[in-house]
Structures are given as C-alpha cells and as structure tokens.
Design brief:
929 residues; alpha+beta; 7-stranded antiparallel sheet; 26 helices
C-alpha cells in the first residue's frame, strides 16, 4: 500500500496548501468511478477530481469552499485508495492506518460498526514543511475490501475538514451486484480430496483465493503486501493427535525462531474428535488442527494469520466451524475416534448428577434457548434451527451469514441482519419485505421490541472527531405502529432478552461508562411498564442470556467474580448456579437448571436438580481475586525449598480455600489445567495469585512423576522468575513453574493449559521441576549417562544398547541416538541398536530397515529385504519415509522395479508434500523420468 508520504511528499503537501489558483465550483453533484472493483463516489458542488500527485492514482479530489472564494489555503484535498485486504480487528486497522501515513502513528483512532461498513477514523494535526496541517484518515471496511480516504487541509480549517471528510465518506458506494467482489461475499463450500477422504469447508471467495502449490495439497491465501492469511492441508502419520501437534510445533519453531505454543484443546469435526494447537510468533498466529483418519493417518490443517491469536478472526472461525470430513471410498475402515479428553473428578460428579436431555449436532453454538412449547432454538454461526428432544429439527434460516437476531412473535419468526434490516423469515431465508431497521429483537404478547441505533452524534467530550451513538428501544404493535420506550446515550444495542414474566428486558451491547471513562460490554435493565433504566452491574464477559423466573440466566463473568451460569434478578441481585468453563445456561424451570455443554461438533443439553446443583455445581469455584487472596496467605511464609515444603504450602492454602469457598484447591494435572481455563479470561492475576499458581503447577507435575530439583536457597522472586532458560537433553528436560505461568497468562488472552503440553513434549524423558537455573541445568547433565556420549563416539554398541534398554519409554533418546549414528555413518551399530526396539514405533522400524538396506551387499540380499519393507508400509501406511525407503529398495534390486519405485516415491511425496522426505521423493521422480 502506498504511504501518504509517497502519495503526497512534503513538498507536494506544502504546494497543495499554498496554491494560488482557485478552482471553479461544480454546478451539480457527480458520480466518479473509484478503483478497479466497481465502487462509486458521489460528491457535490465545489468538489472536483484533481490529481495532486501523479504517483497516487487517479482518485484524488479537491474541494473549494465557494466559487467566489479566492483563498486556496482553505481548500480540502482527499485521496481515495482501494485495498483488497482482510481487516477484522483493531490490530488490522492500526496496520492499515500506519502504513498510510508517516505522521500520526501515535494518534488514537475510533471504530464505528455501521450497517454499511465498519468505519475507522484517525484525526490529527501536524507540521510539514513549516505548514500546519490537519488530517482526517478514514477506513471503510468490509470483508476482503477496504477503502481508505486521506483528507487534509490547513490546520486552521480543521472543522471544515471534518465536515468535508464526512462528505467523501458518505458519498462512497461499495461495488454492487454483478461485480466480482460483491458476488463473492456469500460463503461457498470448497472441497479438498485427501486420498480416500473429502474435506470441505465454507469461505467467501471475495476474501480467499485458491491456488495449488508443491508444498501442500491445497492452499487458500490472501496476499496483499501487508498481511498473509493462509490455509494449508496435508497428511502426516503419527501415533496420536498430540504427537502430530507436537511435530507441527517443532517444525513451526524451526521455521519461526520465536514461535511459542499457546494452548491445545479438543475439538470435533463431523463426528470425529480432533485436537487443535494455537501458537504465536512475534508477528503471526497459528492454528493447527489434527484430524484422525484411519490407522495412524492424520489430516493436518495449518492456518496462518497476522497478529496475536486472541484477535477477532470471524473468517477463520467460520471456516473452522464449517469443516466436514467424509469418506470417498466404501472400502476404507471406519475412522478411529480419539477418546474424549478426560475430565476432573468435579466435572465427572456434575455430569453423573445431571441427566442428558438431548444432543444437538451443532458446531458453533452462539445461542440455545428453551421455547414455550418445549422445543429449543439453536443458532449456529449464521443458521438457526428449532430442535426437539428426540433429535428431530426444523431449519429456520440456512447459512444466512448476515443473521444478527431472531425472535418468535405471534407465530412468525422475525429477524434482523448485520445491515440492521428487520424482515420476516420465510422459506429458510429473509423475506423480501423490509419492515424497518433494528439491532436486537424481543417480544411480549402485545409488542415486538426492537433496538435501534439512532443518528450519529458528535461527542463534545472528545478533543478529536469521534462520533458517538445513541440507541432507542421501541415497541411495535401488530399494525406496525411504533412508540419509543427508552433512550440510551452512547450505547449500541446488540441483544434484547425479556424475563420469564415479560415485565422487563435486559439490553446487552457496547457502550461508554462515564464512571470508568472506558468503553466495553454493558447491560441495562428496562422496565416495560414505564421505560425506567438501571445498570445490571459490571461484567467482564458475557456468552449468553436467556429468560428465567424473576429475571435471566446469564452465562459469563461479573467483574471480580467467577465464570459460570448466574441467575440475575436485578441490578444488584444475582446468584451463581454453576461455576464451570464450557457451559451455557439454557433454562431454569421447575427447580431444575438446563445447561448446554460442548462435545465437539455437537452440544449436549443436560438437566440437573437444584439440590444436586448445590452439591456439585461448583466445578471451578475459584476466581482470580480468590487466587490473589490465597496467594497473599502463601506469601506470608517463606518460599518452599524442598518437595516436602511444597506439599506443606499446598496443604496450608487448601485449608484456607476450604474456608473461603467450601472446596479445596485443585491439585491434579487435569484440575489445575481446568483452573487456568476458568481464570485466564478474567481480571488480571497479581503477584500473590501467580505465586500460588506456580506452587500448584510444581506440585501437580511432581505428583505426575516429575523430579524436584532442590535449590540451595529459595525466595518468591525465584519462584516467579518468568524468563528463566530451560535446559534439556535426550534424557531429561528442565521446567521452571514461573515460566509456565507466564506462557499461560501473559502470552495470550486465550485459555491455556500449561501442564498437558509439558507432559506431552517430554516424549518419555524425565521432567525436572526447579526454580534455580544452575541446579536444574546441573541435574540435566547429571541424568545423562556418563558413558552415553563416549559410547556414541566409540561406537560402543553394547553400551548404547544397555543405556537405551534401561529407559524403554524414552523415545527421544532413541531417535537422537539413531540420528547421531546415521550422521557418523555407523550403519552396523545403527542396525544392531534399532533391532532391539523395532516394534516400538515406525521410526524404530525405519532405522532398522534403512540400515539393513545400506548393509546389503548383493542384489539377492536387497531382494530378500523387500518383503520386510513392504510389511512395514502396510503396518504404517502413512509414514512417508518408509515409502521413500521402499522406493529406494525397488530401484536397487535386480532387475530394478522402477514402476514400483515410482509409485512408492509418489506416495511418499503425497504423504509429506514438503520437508526432506518430500524433496527426496521429488528428486527421485525427476531422476526416473
């Protein structure tokens, strides 16, 4: 994208302001074509297209205040640029703004989500070439297309500039039907064939482009010179999904030196349970999805995005939510589903005490609400269905990506779309008749309640040009006559939910808090009898709101409180019913709570009685303030130095936790990871809470079999050290608990489980937990057998066999040994050692067979080896290196079996499109042509 400095160099800026020739006024409005996609710009009199700088394109305009005016210093200049790019969050907007200008980088900007587009505005003044200039830069954002408008004038004309800049914004019209971008906004389903399977997903052609590359079976990408968004699909073979994710993490760390794994989580795609890894580097974020096929085959999806993982990415979320996998070969065996992720004892007790009511095969559940007739309304991403307990359903809206709100009133479904249009739902879509506009819907017996954004207003409290909104709540009767019920300044309504008695509604939206001086999610209660408004407390997160007796069920987290399902009766009256992550309140009736729980591509609807809920509902009863309070108690005593002192410290806070919340703190690895899931989205955890978490993590690892490395001395600063280096060898890896905490709490706002990934990457090695770097490093050296390095150096086969046999579960040590022997050309030693472990993994089998092939001295020996290699490929059909080995063996027999060699090389290249194996297979195929 051209920078403003390139569009208008400083000398040109001064020239524009100091020009001496006034332009004649235009007699009437005129429409100008803009860019290459088909946009139009309508401007009134006094505007004229004028190319100020030949390097900035044709879409440059100049406005003279009046025909009689002879002071060109008061003119306004505007440059319009078209960008085929994806902008979805503040980081994307900031990057676009910063790339446009060499000045104003530190100035704030404002974001307004309007019906036509998202508008981003940055206004500032500066001095260039001794000229004081005012700038007004706007971004008009829609999926895959952005128009930037840079308007400027003399600083003395700042107010005039703001008015004229708004004229340009209001005059811009995005490309309409019949243009490629506009026609490509509707999501379409894309398919990728993967050796017996078909993967499909939805995407907008206007955002993504598809191409074929040699290093992946499919690639979808957006390349615009500023940001890269890409999806790669390929196959691998691993013994488990976690092993596949670990391999991907290692490859990403190799390609991106500052790559950090953020979290792993179970997901489900088309009935097949999968695993997702989220990672980040300094500039990119990564989503890696591992989906099991048959045997040990794994289908890998890798998504690449600019910025941090926690940034909003609706296009990514939609693509993932619509993934489907189906077999294309009847002979293929049934996909082996991975076992569901284990849950803690508290979770199991909750599930055992609840009743499964129904299962809804809904991927991305944004709303699940009980209807009066006993059915449930489920909204999934952009479609809506009504479900019955027997599993049957009726689809209301199918894949309407613009669905915003939906409400049943007098036997008809009413809906609003993202453009704020109110229509009746007919035949699975929005009806043609426009009934008005709204941003949220609810209903009573007599009225349809509609939230509506009023005219934009300038906020006098802001020194820069920020346009605030006000919203109104209106009642519409059966004759479509409307009356205004309540007005809320500086607030945008997104959802409206009535209470069970239809006496009040609660408004959810985004607004400004005068007390805090900040913007965020807000809740207001409105009395339907008189329109009285009251604030419903401060909330840091809200996932769902549904009606309940006397008020509402709100799934979320009040400020300084625990996350879960709350029964809210008024502004200051609420009760926590179920404290647990991953739940969603559905209904509260007849003394029972109905809640939804995600189980991958489906959601379970469960019911639990209030007495059972009182006993088992506090699955995760602790909040961030609780952890800080318990941590302060922990900090009153000296930091633990020994393993016994760690256990004593945990025992001490356990008693306090029992007194505080009536439950003990989690101590097992599953429970501690669940604790992180529940608190990481809440308010910040201070040093006392972090100290507590480091002790809990250390204790959980020790209970899981790790070794404590006792320091010479201990203090809390050592426990909280967050950037301590961590040594490792083929036999052990050092873990600092403070570093785990930083990775979980600070590297991303997303929930992260620190213990499960740590245990997974050990790969059979000893885990050492310690707070003193020198002591941990010394222990890593100590645990490596002294004769290991010398045995490799001396090619002492018996010594190496003895060492590796003493740690049979240490796969890491074996693979490092194989690699070292192969590098040194010690083929006989490699064959002897790998023979002891040939049945443990495909890597062991590969090492043995490869060594034996290299040792074969005659065509007969190589021919006799072929059946063993073929058997290995049958047992591990997705191991690319084994197929590469088979191809080489087929070439070396006499007579050479070149057709079989080509087939084996083709399979190896298909299984591993990139990497050393894929490159070797590609080179072999070229050689055999």
């Amino acid at each position: 994208m051209p920078q403003l400095s390139a569009l208008l160099p400083r000398a040109a800026l001064a020239l524009c302001i100091a020009a001496t020739t006034a332009l004649p006024a235009l007699a009437q409005t005129k429409r100008y074509p803009i860019g290459e996609e088909g946009a139009k710009l309508e401007l009134g009199k006094y505007w004229k297209r004028q190319q100020v700088n030949p390097t900035a394109g044709e879409d440059q305009f100049r406005c003279t205040e009046s025909a009689a005016r002879r002071d060109p210093a008061g003119d306004v200049f505007a440059i319009v640029l078209e960008h085929r790019t994806l902008a979805e969050n503040d980081a994307d907007y900031r990057r676009l703004l910063d790339l446009m200008t060499i000045v104003g980088h530190d100035e704030p900007f404002q974001v307004q989500r309007e019906a036509r587009w998202t508008r981003v505005t940055r206004a500032f003044t500066t001095e260039l070439e001794k000229q004081k200039l005012a700038f007004h830069v706007d971004l008009l954002v829609r999926p895959g297309l952005v128009y930037s408008i840079a308007s400027f004038a003399a600083a003395s004309r700042a107010a005039w500039l703001a008015e004229k800049a708004n004229e340009v914004v209001e005059g811009l019209e995005f490309p309409g039907p019949g243009r490629p971008w506009a026609d490509g906004l509707a999501p379409t389903r894309r398919q990728v064939e993967v050796d017996g399977f078909r993967l499909s997903f939805e995407l907008r052609p206007s955002v993504w482009t598809a191409s074929e590359q040699a290093d992946a079976q499919a690639l979808l990408a957006l390349e615009d010179g500023m940001a890269t968004c890409a999806l790669f699909v390929f196959e691998e073979t691993h013994r488990s999904l976690d092993a596949a994710l670990t391999a991907s993490a290692k490859l990403l760390a190799k390609d991106h030196g500052d790559f950090v794994e953020v979290r792993r989580e179970p997901i489900e795609r088309d009935g097949c349970r999968s695993r997702r890894l989220v990672g980040r580097s300094s500039t990119l974020s990564f989503d890696v999805i591992a989906i099991p096929l048959e045997g040990q085959r794994t289908l890998m999806l890798r998504l690449l995005w600019p910025g941090a993982p926690e940034l909003e990415r609706p296009e990514r979320d939609h693509l993932l939510a619509t993934l489907q996998l189906e077999s294309t070969e009847e002979a293929l065996p049934v996909i082996e589903l991975e076992q569901p992720a284990p849950r803690s004892t508290r979770w199991q007790r909750l599930l055992e005490s609840s009743e499964l009511v129904a299962t809804f095969p809904v991927n991305h559940l944004s709303r699940l609400q009980a209807l009066p007739d006993g059915r449930w309304l489920a909204i999934d991403w952009s479609s809506a269905s009504v479900w019955r307990a027997d599993g049957s359903s009726e689809e209301l809206i199918a894949h309407e990506n613009e669905l915003a709100s939906l409400e049943l009133w007098r036997g008809r479904w009413y809906a609003t779309n993202r453009a704020g249009e109110l229509r009746v739902v007919e035949n699975g879509s929005f009806g043609e008749e426009l009934l008005g506009h709204g941003t949220g819907l609810a209903s009573t017996q007599e009225h349809l309640l509609v939230g509506r954004a009023a005219e934009a207003q300038r906020d006098p409290a802001m020194s820069f040009s920020w346009y605030a909104r006000r919203s109104v709540l209106v009642r519409r009767d059966s004759r479509y006559q409307e009356s205004e019920l309540a007005e809320l300044p500086r607030f945008q309504i997104s959802e409206i939910t009535k209470d069970a008695e239809e006496r009040r509604v609660i408004l959810q939206g985004y607004g400004h808090d005068e007390r805090l001086g900040s913007f965020g999610e807000r809740l207001y209660v409105v009395e339907l009898a008189n329109g009285a408004i009251s604030r419903a407390g401060d909330w840091t997160a809200i996932q769902a709101i549904v009606p309940a007796p006397g008020g509402w069920l709100i799934t979320g987290r009040p400020a300084e409180e625990r996350a879960g399902i709350w029964h809210v009766r008024g502004a200051a009256e609420r009760e926590l019913l179920l404290a647990a992550p991953e739940v969603r309140g559905v209904a509260l009736r007849e003394g029972q709570l109905e809640f939804a729980l995600s189980s991958g591509t489906s959601h379970e609807l469960r019911r639990i009685a209030r007495d059972a809920l009182a006993r088992h509902g506090m699955v995760q009863p602790f909040s961030a303030p609780d952890l800080d309070a318990l941590g302060r108690l922990l900090l009153e005593a000296p930091a633990p130095r020994t393993r016994a002192e760690i256990a004593q410290a945990v025992e001490k806070v356990q008693a306090a936790a029992q007194k505080l919340r009536g439950a003990p703190l989690p101590v097992g690895e599953l429970e501690v990871d669940e604790l992180f899931d529940s608190v990481v989205f809440g308010p910040g955890i201070d040093a006392p809470g972090r100290a507590l978490l480091t002790v809990l993590c250390a204790h959980a690892l020790l209970e899981a079999g790790a070794t404590w490395v006792e320091p010479a001395r201990a203090d809390w600063a050592s426990w909280l050290a967050s950037r301590a280096p961590q040594d490792e060898s083929a036999f052990s890896m050092a873990v600092h608990p403070g570093r785990l905490i930083v990775s979980a709490l600070d590297d991303s706002e997303s929930a992260s489980q620190p213990l499960a990934p740590t245990l997974a990457v050990a790969d059979g090695r000893r885990i050492l937990v310690g707070i003193e770097v020198a002591a941990s490093s010394a222990k890593v050296v100590e645990l490596e057998p002294r004769q290991f390095a010398s045995a490799i150096q001396a090619l002492d086969v018996e010594a190496l066999r003895k060492i590796l046999s003493s740690v049979p579960e240490n796969r890491c040590a074996r693979l490092r040994t194989y690699g070292e022997l192969e590098t040194r050309g010690a083929t006989e030693a490699l064959a002897a050692i790998s023979a002891d472990h040939a049945q443990r993994s495909p890597e062991d089998r590969r090492a043995l067979l490869g060594a034996r092939l290299r040792l074969a001295k005659s065509p007969t020996e190589r021919s006799e080896l072929l059946p063993a290699i073929e058997e290995a490929t049958r047992e591990h059909p997705r191991d690319a290196a084994l197929w590469l080995l088979l191809g080489r063996a087929c070439e070396q027999v006499e007579p050479a079996q070149l057709d079989r060699a080509r087939a084996a090389y083709t399979r190896a290249r298909k299984l591993e499109p990139w990497g050393d194996v894929g490159q070797a297979a590609e080179a072999a195929l070229k050689r055999l042509k």
